[in-house]
Specification:
This protein has 207 residues and is of the alpha+beta class. Helix content is 18%, strand content 34%. The strands form two sheets. Strands 3, 4, 5, 6, 7, 8, 9 and 10 form an eight-stranded mixed beta sheet that branches. Strands 1-2 form a two-stranded antiparallel sheet. Strand 4 and strand 5 form a beta hairpin. The relative contact order is 0.17.
């Protein structure tokens, strides 16, 4: 897929009453010395009532004879005006658990059918700026299933996603390569790659 036509055309202020997905708020709080302070923060407006998270990220690792490979995707993101390297992810719909959302989003974005293996603790994306949060859901993909042999993503009209695989042992180097090519690395992907490198360095796993 070519992303050459994707680019930001203009930037302008956005009033809260025009926003569909997020809003700015002014927080008043007391610091550890009981001094009153204020803080500018952003919040998503899409979190379902009664749900404690905004979205999910999906860790889908395919076990292959040549070694495990991570499911990644390329997607143009207007806020950074770059093609980003991401794990599959998405917002939680009303009535969904994190696990339900992960299975749905993985199928929609990549075509892979999976089962849930483990769910992480709650994570905050950028707590100095916003209250957006998520859980990482680790899934198992059975490559013997016919659905996983012939992938059929179910993308929305405004979604343009290229799915690809990267060997876990090469993830750090691939992130460096993608950055050199002008891509933006999603923090979840970069942090995962850094974790693998730390594990190698401190001999917590085989290099």
């Amino acid at each position: 897929m070519s992303f050459s036509n994707a680019k930001v055309l203009s930037t302008e202020p956005l009033a809260n009453d025009e926003a569909e997905w997020a809003k700015l708020v002014k927080l008043t709080y007391t610091d550890p010395k009981s001094q009153k302070r204020t803080w500018e923060s952003a919040e998503r407006t899409t979190r379902p009532e009664g749900c404690d998270i905004d979205g999910v990220g999906i860790i889908a690792i395919l076990e292959k004879p040549t070694g495990p490979e991570l499911v990644l995707q390329k997607q143009y993101r207007a806020p950074v005006d770059k093609v980003t390297i991401e794990i599959p992810a998405g917002l939680v719909d009303k009535g969904e658990t994190a696990e339900m959302a992960a299975i749905r989003e993985l199928k929609e974005e990549t075509g892979y059918v999976a089962t849930v293996a483990e769910t992480s603790s709650m994570m905050f994306n950028d707590p100095g700026f916003c209250n957006t949060n998520l859980r990482l859901v680790h899934v198992t993909v059975d490559m013997s299933l016919p659905e996983n042999q012939k992938l059929e993503p179910q993308l929305e009209e405004d979604e343009f996603i290229e799915v690809f695989l990267v060997p876990l042992t090469n993830l750090y180097a691939e992130c460096k390569r993608f950055e050199a090519e002008g891509c933006a690395i999603d923090a979840r992907v970069g942090t995962f790659a850094e974790g693998i490198e730390c594990a190698k360095k401190f001999k917590m796993l085989a290099a």
